[in-house]
Amino acid sequence: MLGPVILAASRSDAMRRLVSAAPVTKPVVERFIAGETVDEVVPVVKHLTDGGLEVSLDVVGEDITTPERSTAARDAYLELIERLEGLGLGERAEMSVKLSLFGQALPGGHELALANVRPVVEAAARIGTTVTLDAEDHTTLDSMFAIHEELRKDFPETGCVIQAYLFRTEDDARRLAAAGSRVRIVKGAYKEPASVAYQDKAETDKAYVRILKILMEGEGYPMIGSHDPRLIAITQELARRAGRKLHEYEFQMLYGIRGEEQARLAAEGHRVRVYTAYGTDWYGYFMRRLAEKPANLLFFARSLITKN
């Protein structure tokens, strides 16, 4: 029951002011959001990559209500890419985008989102990197996968995300595990109905392993989005059985979560990419993460105590 309450709070200006002014908010935001501007996030990118890590950058903001705001979101990514070009990091710094930010939920949103994301993908390719399309709630996925397929005609390295808790995902994984594909697997955090998604954590974990096996045995490039030590160990074993070298898959973790584990895996030779969110709309991003999965309240509370 907490989810709808938190989601309503994410749209409340009064609650925004209250939460933003609370003393406990600032350290939480600074821990999980890498800054509000490109000038603030670039040093973070340099610090992470100098430490042997890679990054996937997300300009936060999802509640787009006008085509003008979707265009502004596109321009924010283009500004980011322009700044990344000067760092010369290539594929070590990619972008993650939510198509809702590019207007997917607006009237004519499929075409609008495709029109907005294409120049971002083109600009990323120009500096030697790529874009991954994030997965959102299940009602948006057919559109996301169709846009992904369209973009891959010209930019085959464009990635996408699949969510283990959805019943459809094993079939999606089989379709996507082809040569040249880049697929990030996550457990899934949106509040989905029992008709489309597993509601039990154990069932989700089992599905994650089944899907991971499909990806590892396929011909694409798996990207493992998890902080779970058990799933990380299973990933390493499945990769070994599939005969994959360390550069033929990667781990992905959130900025501010399990930093020591990120460094440990990178020191072992694994590719480790840090999902790094930034932007002025941190309030909406933060509250939506809690609304998607209220158990995150405890998770973030624990994170204030320990950084790993």
UniProtKB/TrEMBL annotation:
Reaction equations catalysed: L-proline + a quinone = (S)-1-pyrroline-5-carboxylate + a quinol + H(+)
Cofactor binding annotation: Binds 1 FAD per subunit.
InterPro entries: FAD-linked_oxidoreductase-like, PRODH_bac_arc, Proline_DH_dom, Proline_oxidase
UniProt entry tagged with the keyword Ion transport: no
Keyword Oxidoreductase attached: yes
Pathway(s) served: Amino-acid degradation; L-proline degradation into L-glutamate; L-glutamate from L-proline: step 1/2
Binding residues for FAD: Q163, K187, G188, A189, K201, S226, H227
GO biological process: L-proline catabolic process to L-glutamate
Signal peptide: none
Record: residues binding substrate: K98, R288, R289
Protein name per the record: proline dehydrogenase
Originating organism: Streptomyces montanus
